[in-house]
Specification:
Layout (H helix, E strand, L loop, with lengths): L1 E7 L5 H10 L2 E5 H11 L1 H11 L4 E2 L2 E2 L1 H8 L3 H25 L4 E5 L14 E6 L2 H12 L3 H10 L3 H5 L4 E4 L3 H21 L1
Parallel strand pairs: 1-5, 1-6, 2-5, 6-7
Antiparallel strand pairs: 3-4
Helix pairs in contact: 2-5
Length: 197
């Protein structure tokens, strides 16, 4: 079983690159989407979030993302607390995912692959990097977020410099057609290395 990690700061282009891996037969474990499901559906997690962040944390069954984002992206301690509730559950889901996808090629897409130590469970880890201005413009276009909100998120994420030392491969995503070619070449390289083991 081949297990690859894919990470990068907000707006680096993870989701688009993830689609290339899916087209090449990889099963995708999107840890950020799994985390959102856990926050929405896991009663023990919901209870802990409400106890810690207050009754405004949820609107009906859904997390009040705007309210929580304002808190956690202004206070690393509170962000770490939220992550500490969710990460163990994400890892548990990943173990189940592996068992149901034996002999498959796996790609883990995660914004906090290194911060959460998820990368230690994988064979190779790819870091996507992009100029800050380009990342901000992508997010404004995609999510309709304000520049201020995007920069608050960027400020609590690890810098690319810190992540580079932990990555197996680093891909600069400026022009996506060029990035696609690099990713396809990298997939071939990783698969051939895996076969030789």
């Amino acid at each position: 079983m081949l297990k690859i990690g894919l990470t990068g700061g907000i707006g680096a282009g993870k989701t688009e690159v993830s689609k290339i891996f899916a087209e090449k037969g990889f099963k995708i474990f999107n840890s950020d989407e799994i985390a959102k499901k856990i926050i929405r559906n896991d009663l023990s997690v919901k209870k802990s979030i409400i106890n810690f962040f207050g009754t405004n944390s949820y609107i009906g069954y859904n997390l009040n993302s705007k309210y929580i984002s304002e808190i956690v992206y202004s206070d690393k301690y509170k962000l770490n607390y939220l992550n500490s509730l969710v990460h163990p559950k994400v890892f548990h889901q990943f173990e189940k995912f592996l068992k149901s996808n034996l002999n498959s090629k796996i790609l883990v897409e995660s914004a906090i692959l290194f911060e959460s130590n998820f990368y230690k469970m994988l064979d190779n880890n790819i870091l996507l990097i992009s100029p800050k201005v380009q990342r901000i413009n992508r997010i404004i276009k995609r999510d309709n977020k304000s520049r201020r909100d995007i920069e608050k998120i960027m400020n609590v994420q690890w810098s690319d410099k810190k992540k580079i030392s932990l990555a197996t491969f680093v891909i600069e995503n400026i022009n996506f057609s060029e990035t696609s070619m690099q990713i396809l070449s990298l997939i071939s390289k990783i698969e051939s290395l895996s076969e030789k083991k």
